[in-house]
Amino acid sequence: MKTFFKIVLGIAIIAGICYGLNTLREKKQAEPEPEVIRPVRTITLRGQGETFKRRYFGTVQGSKRADLSFRVSGTLNKINVEKGANVKRGALLATLDPRDFNTRISQAQSALSQAEAQYKNAQADFKRYENLYKQRVIAKAQYDTYKTQVDVTKSAVNSANANLKSARDALKDTELRAPFDGVIADRTVENFQDITAKQTIFSLQDLSALEIVFNVPDNDVLLAPLSTNIKSIQDLKNSAKDFIVNARFDAIPDKVFPLALKEVATQATAANTYPITATMPKQNDVRILPGMAVTVEVDFSGGKSPEPSDAKFSVPTTAILSQGGNNYVWRFGVGYVSKIPVTLGQIHNDSTVEIDGPTLNNGDVIVTAGVYFLHEGQRVRLSED
């Protein structure tokens, strides 16, 4: 009997514990957890002032450029110019050893003489047998054989003539001449070196007018104030003619060189940039050479003062929230955040990026860290550190 009472008492205790735990759980579920107020770091937006002014790195090149090579293979016999030399059109720059080419000419001349002798013999035979055929002394088949021999030997003469001309042309090709006035920008071989046909020997550039090539990121192309009626490259150049484009060289910091746009690529490179070519008149007071680095300054506004609505701002790249192919920032309100769509501009070396958006204003407070851990309307507080 005692055992029975012990079992009943144990069951009662267990039931009481279960009831108590269930009551506690229901009470806990009924009370909502307090919302966590996340601390955030922020930055205050300040307009940059130079809305459409950009700087790009470029390189100098001549208005005409050519990599010069021989059309035949051989051994360099003489190099007449050095790097940096000014040359005129037609100037002899280098020659190959002509001995092998003279031998080929001699062989071609010998082959031509032999072919001409055979042709003359064939003509004489044909003339003799032609008379016999007219007298009906020989059959037509025999006459046709000698006529064919004339045709064959004549073709051999034509072929030998072509081979001789080719050998003479090859000899001419042992001379490398300048196709235009310019400067030898580079030389890639040394004298007495064996070279192959089409192997670059010199790089020639015309420096009477200079070109500067620089790359514009696709974001700047989208933000530049271009006409919406552009249908061709000419329309693009006409639309961009008001842009102010200048070049600066580190060695000449106090001088600005005006540029004029020449070519605008419509196909982006692998780095999502568009190559732009600008021209610069030859400078007589300074020596600017191909390959020099240059900073290109472009004022897309054409010198006009930026409108207040066009102002762009710079924020740390950590402030950008990328979702679904779009970009956003979190704007700090009075104890909460809201998601604002933005357009990205140029990324700077200090890990900041330019942004703009229709609802951004001077003085807006933007969250700069932990942007992927926030949600719309979330309560936040300014970080004290």
Describe it.
This protein is of the alpha+beta class and 385 residues long. It contains five helices and 22 strands. Among the domains are: 40-51 and 308-382, conserved putative lor/sdh protein from methanococcus maripaludis s2 fold (Beta Barrel), CATH 2.40.420.20; 54-62 and 208-299, Elongation Factor Tu (Ef-tu), domain 3; 98-173, Helix Hairpins, CATH 1.10.287. The protein has helices spanning 2-30, 99-134, 140-172, 218-223, 233-239, and strands at 38-40, 42-44, 53-69, 74-79, 86-87, 92-96, 175-177, 182-187, 194-195, 200-217, 244-249, 252-258, 260-264, 273-281, 293-299, 313-316, 321-323, 326-332, 337-347, 352-356, 365-367, 380-382. Strands 3, 5, 8, 10, 11, 12, 13, 14 and 15 form a nine-stranded antiparallel β-sheet that branches. Strands 16-20-19-18-17 form a five-stranded antiparallel β-sheet. The protein has a four-stranded antiparallel β-sheet with strand order 7-6-4-9, with no helix packed on it. Strand 11 (244-249) and strand 12 (252-258) form a beta hairpin. The longest helix has 36 residues, at 99-134. It is elongated, with a radius of gyration of 42 Å. It starts with a helix and ends with a strand. The model has no long low-confidence stretch (mean pLDDT 82).
